[in-house]
TrEMBL record:
A Pfam family matched in the record: Asparaginase_2
InterPro entries, A to Z: Ntn_hydrolases_N, Peptidase_T2
Alphabetical list of SUPFAM superfamilies matching this protein: N-terminal nucleophile aminohydrolases (Ntn hydrolases)
Database matches in CDD domains: Asparaginase_2 (cd04701)
Highest taxon in the source lineage: Bacteria
Name assigned to this protein: Isoaspartyl peptidase/L-asparaginase family protein
Organism: Terrimonas rubra
Length: 293
């Protein structure tokens, strides 16, 4: 691995903490939605990952975040796009789902809505991390929209965060949150908040959360494509995800990966990128965190 033992340990405990917060929500009898919310909030609050605190820098040196959450039991969804200064974008996405008649709010409109729900704005400095700043410095004066490729440890994994869960009722949910891509254009929106692209959940098929080069994930309609392959071709989650990640995305140069779960509790975690930090926990005793290929 290209990580120092210390950094490796920090990533591992960050992932485990997120898994635990999601799992404990389920143990308390909460729904899959509450579980993915808890897991993603834990990752947004962790500056190691590219979501909430620790989000990457835009070309203008700001942090613009996207997030979405979806309930597979009724196909309800909420999303926010290109928002600044919100500590937990995934919470705001859930509020859009629960307290508006809309699915997605962006920019200032999303912030106006947040104010009506009692959110306060964090200063830009809250989102700062040296690692993301260094990354941005390397590409700031170019036209490159860097993937998360250039951090000092030469880590080529993406930092977007996501969670999928199934609860005891067989309801699935998915949540994704991201700062997007380093040096992205002001106003650029990635796949994460777009239902069916970076995020999707449907009890009849699966819940999916993606990370990777968003433009390609939008064009491939990735998350819904996995669901479609299951629904209309009768494929298993693993088979469907394999086609999308290892074949369809690869053919158009779409680097990244995804995590998924179906209503029976089958899971799949696949990527065509150099790596993907990931973990699984369930009630049969499986509790695994993996930061290696
Ligand atoms: C995006 N999919 O905005 C995200 C990028 C990502 O870690 O995964 N970054 O395109």
């Amino acid at each position: 691995t290209d990580l120092t033992p210390e950094l490796e340990q920090t990533y591992t405990s960050g992932l485990q903490a997120a898994l635990d917060s999601g799992y404990h929500a389920l143990q308390k009898g909460q729904s899959a939605i509450e579980a993915v919310l808890a897991a993603v909030i834990s990752l947004e609050d962790n500056p190691l990952f590219n979501a909430g605190k620790g989000s990457v820098f835009t070309k203008q040196g700001k942090h613009e975040m996207d997030a979405a959450i979806m309930d597979g039991s009724n196909l309800q969804a909420g999303a926010v796009a290109a928002i600044q200064q919100i500590k937990n974008p995934i919470q705001l996405a859930l509020d859009v789902m629960r307290h508006t008649e809309h699915v997605m709010l962006s920019g200032q409109g999303a912030l106006d809505f947040a104010a009506t729900r009692g959110y306060t704005l964090e200063p830009d400095t809250y989102f700062f991390s040296q690692q993301r700043y260094n990354q941005w410095q390397q590409v700031q004066h170019t036209d490159t929209t860097a993937l998360d490729h250039n951090i000092p440890v030469k880590d080529k994994k993406f930092g977007t965060v996501g969670a999928v869960a199934v609860d005891s009722q067989g309801n699935v949910a998915a949540a994704t949150s991201t700062g997007g891509m380093t040096n992205k254009q002001f106003g650029r929106i990635g796949d994460s908040p777009i239902i069916g692209c970076g995020t999707y959940a449907n009890n009849h098929t699966c819940a999916i959360s993606c990370t990777g080069h968003g433009e390609l994930f939008i064009r491939a309609v990735t998350a819904y494509d996995v669901s479609c392959l299951m629904e209309y071709k009768g494929l298993s989650l693993q088979e469907a995800m394999h086609i999308v990640v290892q074949d369809k995305l690869v053919k158009i140069g779409g680097e990244g990966g995804m995590i998924g779960v179906d209503s029976k509790g089958n899971t799949a975690l696949l990527f065509n990128s150099e790596g993907m930090y990931r973990g699984v926990r369930d009630n049969t005793g499986i509790n695994e965190v993996n930061i290696y290929k």
